[in-house]
Amino acid sequence: MKALIPIAPWLAHALGSIFSSQALMEIGKALDLADPTEVAIEKICANLTDEQINKLQQADQTFSQQLKEIGFLNYRQLIDLKQSDRRTIRKKPTKLSDKTPRNLAYILVVGMLVVGSSMLFIDLKVDSSLAGVILGYLFNSTATAINYYFGEREN
Which of 11, 37, 46, 131 is most buried, by CB atoms within 10 Å? Predict the structure, then answer.
């Protein structure tokens, strides 16, 4: 949603936070979307008209007023809230001495390496669409595990 940041910074930074559903609804109202999802909004943001930009800016001002009423002084606090939520979630298994997330991450990484190596060196054939879906899921889950432990870059 980087295209939305210069136009409606409050709404853009609210996506992915605890205010995500409210931000999606506000953006959906401004852009006249029946089903406002991040994918639909991203597609529309590629070709915004001046009228849509004005509606988004008005929605952003309304949204910012609502958040200021509950104590947010600027949208930077939304970014800090998202980052502190991630830090808290990453510290939870350590505090609880829970090794399950770590073990699952090991299994995913080893599985990805085995399947990837098999495809490259042993000539493992992935012919069916189901095998492709499973392989995609495995690689995507591995990326999620890596983001969990090493963090996501937020520009």
Answer: 11
Q: Tens digit of pLDDT for each residue in 41-81?
A: 888 888 888 999 999 999 999 988 988 888 887 778 877 77
Residues 6+ apart with CB under 8 A from 152: 86
Task: Characterize 13-35 residue by residue with b for buried, 16 or more Cβ atoms within 10 angstroms of its Cβ, and e for exposed.
Answer: bbbbbebeeebbebbbebbeeee
- Rounded to whole angstroms, the Cα distance separating 149 from 141 reads 13
Cβ atoms 98, 107 nearer than 8 A: no
